[in-house]
Cation:proton antiporter (Petrotoga olearia DSM 13574), 241 residues
Amino acid sequence: MKKFVAALLTFTVAFFIFSLLYDSQSFFPKYGEKDLNNTISQRYLEKNTDETRPYPETGSANIVTSVVVNYRGFDTLGELTVLFLSAMGVALLLNVGKERLGFRVKPNFILKAGVRIITGIILIVGIYIFVHGHLTPGGGFPGGAMIASSVLLMYISDDKFKEKMNAFTVLEGTSGVLIIVLGLIGLFAFNSFLYNFLPSGEIGHLFSAGLTPILYVLIGLKVGSELSNIIGNFLTQGGEE
């Protein structure tokens, strides 16, 4: 019965979508007939990267970054809030003690040495990604995830390794508070949350795009520290230190 209902719903949704796409009165333009010069995305490009404008709105060479951090910055803050609540839920449910979980099979020297070399490379690339998020593809979320992946590698390669939970907690809280403060400055001074109130500089340079790279660095640190805390909580067990 469940399969029949699922198939019926799938057929209904598919029929609805195809009827919209192929209906002659549909508001969707036919493939290849859409004039992209008049789309909203084109207007965002013109506002942000057109060097003929005296003051581009963000000055970010990466238009995706402009949208994520500036135009939908409040939504990005919501995503960070969801991640924070998830980390807090994991901490409340699992972090009943501070003892590090041990492995039945002890990691050997080659594994430990190899992971330490790879971890350094991952950390550098992760930091590079969120520092250059306004110039190249990337940003705070992937950069932060790479930092957390290096912490995970250290955990699984060394049964004595235990991250400094307090340091990551302080880093996560500090970066989150700074994002809120910068957003409120824009809200109260310029009537727009996370308003880009710093000079945009010259497009394509490292020190450009005003507030955008600062926010991406803070987002990268917050995501990396939160994910690292989640990893640490998953690998602890009950008991006193």
